[in-house]
Amino acid sequence: MGDVNTTLDIMGIGTVRCIIGSNFLCIENVRYVPGLAESINSLFLHIKQPNHGLHSSFGTDLQINFPTFQATVLIGNDDIYVDALPHADNDVKADFNCLSVSSSTN
Predict the structure, then answer these.
(1) Fewest 10 Å CB contacts: which of 21, 24, 43, 60?
(2) Closest alpha carbon to 46 in 84, 91, 4, 87
């Protein structure tokens, strides 16, 4: 948690399905940590994936790149955020762009 004393247990690993703008996205190998106050995603791991990245140029918003679309990120005081909504309907799996997220955490 950023200090040497605080730890939180991983209660499960699974797939998160969400909607970013008009795009369906699923992220595999997500850790479920109920004690976290917010959802987090490693941008470092994101940009290491093929066809992923961040893009910004003078006078434009910061964009996060996925293989088939880009999304504008929201810049907060302490972090950047992707405006993603959860999607629980398992019947539309074929419409989702699935990303496998690798992690060094077991």
Answers:
(1) 60
(2) 84
Return d(Cα 93, Cα 5) in angstroms, integer: 40
**Look-up of token digits 């955020």:** 81
Asked if 24 and 96 touch (Cβ cutoff 8 Å), the reply is yes
Q: What confidence tens digit (pLDDT) does each residue in 32-83 have?
A: 888 888 777 778 888 888 888 888 877 778 888 988 889 888 888 888 888 8
Q: What is the 3-state secondary structure (H, E, C) of the chain?
A: CCCCCCCCCCCEEEEEEEEECCEEEEEEEEEECCCCCCCCCCHHHHHHCCCCEEECCCCCCCEEECCCCEEEEEECCCCEEECEEECCCHHHHHHCEEEECCCCCC
* pLDDT over 70 at 98, yes or no: no
> One-letter amino acid identity for 52?
H
